[in-house]
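Box 3.1 A note on notation
Throughout this textbook, protein chains are presented in two layers. The first layer is the amino acid sequence; the second is a token string describing backbone geometry. Keep the layers aligned when reading.
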Amino acid sequence: MYLNDFSLTFTLVFIIGWYALQSISYYKFFEKADKPGWIGFIPFYNYYVHLEIVGRPKWWVFLLFVPVVNFFIALTIHLDLLKSFGKYSYFDQSVGVILAPFYMTYVAWSDTKYLGKATELPKRKRTFSQEWFEAIVFAVFAATFIRWIFMEAYVIPTPSMERSLLVGDFLFVSKINYGPRTPKTPIQIPLTHAKIWGTETPSYLEWIELPQFRLPSLGKVERNDVVVFNYPVNDNYNQRPDGDYHPLDLKTHYIKRCVAIPGDVLEVKRGEVYINGEKGVDPELMQHRYFIETDQVIRDRVFSDYKIWEYGPAMKPDGAKGYIALTTANMAAKLAALDFVKSADPMFMDAENSEPRIFPDSRYFPWNADNFGPLEIPGRGITIQVDEYNLAKYGSTIQDYEDLEDVQIDVDKLVINGQEVSEYTFTKDYYFMMGDNRHNSEDSRYWGFVPEDYIVGEASFIWMSMDERGSFLNKIRWNRLFNPIN
């Protein structure tokens, strides 16, 4: 089960239900603290009284409306309230956070007494190890929560997005832009992904597997967004030592640019992307493969000066000598202007030359990375007629990502749960992803669409960048620090 967006009705019911439970618990808490119980139902004022009875500054009520800060303030005063009513144990504090506001309602209406302001109560005697343990538990909990809800750090390991993103760039990826996903496999070592650090051992247990939901978001995936997602294909990138594959939310992370959204018709002509018949927007630092014709040796330093890191000597079939380099059109033009360079021309495949690995099926669609499509991107509510051509195009998507229990495809027949169907309506949105380094990117041109439930977040900004070719302080690319990602 997967929800792309909560409906307005669901959202209102959720908010009203949460607030009702909170107000009911406040009513009893306030009565026990010799405050009028009815204040518990008054918005904002109830938070003010909450702060008063736990002994925190009243002006903290304003911090409850400051993003990110409000999480830590709410958590602090929430735990303070439990302490004010005698709930000090790790069990009470943990359950009070995980099951709030249900547990708070239970505590409020159970046989508890108000002991006084949490900030003024005698502190429990704790050993040095207990203090450190509590500090570590809180830090891990806070980091895990922020990582799940707000932002997560990633590093660029491959050059598929160069030069927009470089190998060694450390990014912050926003989860709230597209809405954070609830975990599918909740039993997991905190702050890990699929493996225990430095090993091939899975960091999770599959004893419990939950349906996945997406919380409300600030927006949706749009064309040209730089997106982090779980690599959808079950191959060696997602395979575990036991031969099985990681669950959806723990599959390998990929980062690419979304070039087409549901309902778009995508076509690539001689390396240029077209959307719905119109030329798409090219990334500013998009790279292609160029042949740099010259009869001289070009030193590594020259390539480095022109920000070219992928290159090598080559010879054309007609005998022309030079170098093949992956670079931008702007840098290629600058190289072509050098006295010892005869030309710098892009190298695109002919439309007649198909690639065997091309998506969706080279036997039906003899395309290549430079000449691809037209291909309509499927989306929720889009219906296709079942025939041999459409099954060759969309069959694997229906079979692998539509969460159907039993799908059988036989050339021009689609059988779902034992029933042959003549048409199929998609239940999810899908996206087409490409790397900015167009001739060195494993992307949707080779393995297909990215389903909506595989989307992790939007790349926001670079917080650190390390160049392994540099030395000492030169390893840090200072000019890239805190750059936004476009």
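Residues 322 and 399 are 46 Å apart (CA to CA). The first strand starts at residue 151 and ends at 155.
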